[in-house]
Design a protein that fits this description.
The complex is a heterodimer of chains A (112) and B (112).
Chain A (H helix, E strand, L loop, with lengths): L3 E4 L2 E5 L4 E7 L3 E9 L5 E7 L2 E5 L2 E6 L4 E6 L8 E9 L9 E2 L3 E6 L1
Chain B lengths: L4 E3 L2 E4 L5 E6 L6 E7 L5 E8 L2 E4 L8 E4 L6 E5 L8 E8 L6 E2 L3 E5 L1
Parallel strand pairs in B: 2-11
Antiparallel strand pairs in B: 1-3, 3-8, 4-5, 4-9, 5-6, 7-8, 9-10, 9-11
The chains are: A mainly beta (112), B mainly beta (112).
């Protein structure tokens, strides 16, 4: 079992819909990252969070440390949001926090 | 600030050739990390370097792979005698300390 599990694997939505992508992890973490990867493109860091909630434009990320669960929400989705969304756990194991453990990603397709 | 620059974006090598992948970190960033994304798999940590030092190479295959980050110039990931299984996307990230990662656009290596 992967230490970081994402669901769903694939998600198709209509423009304007509210999107939720989930991430569960089994390791102790110092932070949880959400990343965006466009097909054939690079990786963009969206959020790094260790507690609570962060918001940037139409994107909201939340984390529940006790439940070891994080969610990424997209409000009023748009076709340009179509991408792979990846969560990554930054472990809190003494000095090796750079060894991010990545989920396999959620492929989001937003249709006009 | 140009961000993390990786080149080439795409690299095709025949089996047995050498592949050199370059990563120039963001200005002011002295920590560089390499990750590999195999087809249908999540990203995996390979190596963590600071200027002139390999800090952790526990994710690197034991043979044919090496990395360096010289005092001057970009970080280099070198794969000798490439095989088909080396075909993947290779991403580097940099940070000013061991937090706050900025990712590059990746190099897509295809071994034919």
């Amino acid at each position: 079992k992967n230490e970081v599990e994402q669901s769903p694997q694939n998600l198709t939505a209509q423009e304007g819909e509210f999107i939720t992508i989930n991430c569960s992890y089994s390791v102790g973490i110092s932070a949880l990252h959400w990343l965006q990867q466009h097909p054939g493109g690079g990786i963009v860091s969206l959020f790094m969070l260790s507690s609570g909630k962060k918001k940037h434009g139409r994107l909201i990320a939340t984390i529940n440390i006790q439940e070891k669960h994080s969610s990424l929400h997209i409000t009023a989705s748009h076709p340009r949001d179509s991408a792979v969304y990846i969560c990554a756990a930054e472990p809190n194991s003494g000095g090796s926090n750079y060894k991010l453990t990545f989920g396999k990603g959620t492929l989001l397709t937003v249709n006009p | 600030n140009a961000g993390v620059m990786q080149n080439p974006r795409h690299l095709v090598r025949r089996r047995g050739q050498e592949a050199r992948l370059r990563c120039s970190p963001m200005k002011g960033h002295s920590h560089v990390y390499w990750y590999r994304q195999l087809p249908e798999e999540g990203l995996k940590f390979m190596v963590y370097l600071q200027k002139e030092n390999i800090i952790d190479e526990s994710g690197m295959p034991k043979e044919r792979f090496s990395a360096e980050f010289p005092k001057e110039g970009p970080s280099i990931l070198r794969i000798q005698q490439v095989v088909r299984g080396d075909s993947a996307a290779y991403f580097c990230a940099s940070s000013p300390e061991r937090v706050g990662y900025t990712f590059g656009s990746g190099t897509r290596l295809t071994v034919v």
